[in-house]
Predict the structure.
Amino acid sequence: MKPSASRIVQGIWRLADPKLCIASTVPMIVGAAMAYNAVGSINFYWFFWSLFGVYLIETGKNAINEVVDYNSGVDRFVSADKRTPFSGGKKTIVDGLLTIEDTKIIAFVTMLAAVIIGIYISVMRETLVFWIGIVGFLISIIYSIPPFKLCYRGLGELAIGFTYGPLVLLGTYVVQTHNFELKAFIVSLVIGFLITNVVWINQYPDYEADAKGKKLNWVVRMGKKQGIKVYILLYLLAYLTLLPLVLYTRNIYWLLALLSIPAAKRSVIVAKKYYNDIPKLVEANIKTIQVYQITGLALAVAALFA
């Protein structure tokens, strides 16, 4: 494959996947809103560098995952009838946008840039972020790379929930306030449960390919039908976490997050009925992302009054 600037740019854009950067943007916005309530201002300079650093790690993690999933056959095993915007990773190598070597270089460069930004924030703004960043960086590496391969060993869901919940939200909060607060941790659990659910339902289109490629996530381990029970449970855990949050803060504004229940209910109805019909299941994939977005926005608004 001949080098092409436009092809490389398209590949990087797809790896960065701006439409799904919402995964990291939501907890950062909520964390920033909570920080504003705590200290009365937001330092947008440091918010920008925090956001940029997280986006770079996310892109690097996606690039690493592309290489591993391509080599294991997982991405190549996704059949045409199962291919959706939520299946088969970013499809950069499968679709010929990037070579394996291109993708490895992108992973290295983005991860190196993220490390530099993390050190800059740690030295110039808040030292605690160094340790939060180290944990996030390591998880993004061992998520796919052998011998760890968390996403192949049933630990990928936990890794994503922990990263996009507590790590990203608390990291944003600490950068802005130089402080840790219990209510920020409780809020991060709500985010963590919901982003785990996004990942959970997105594993359905890849079920057969993942099983064939030995990517033993929990949907593959449990089966599609049983997996829906966990899908429902994760929603329940997210909404039930609001109760201790309200009791601890004595602020009912956190219940604004319940505005996402109609979308959650619809996603469950669709998932229960069409878990084995991937084209029709796409509505559940979309609704689950909407639940994450609506809940995140509601929590950000509530945080301003908390």
The mean pLDDT is 93. DSSP finds 13 helices and no strands in the chain.
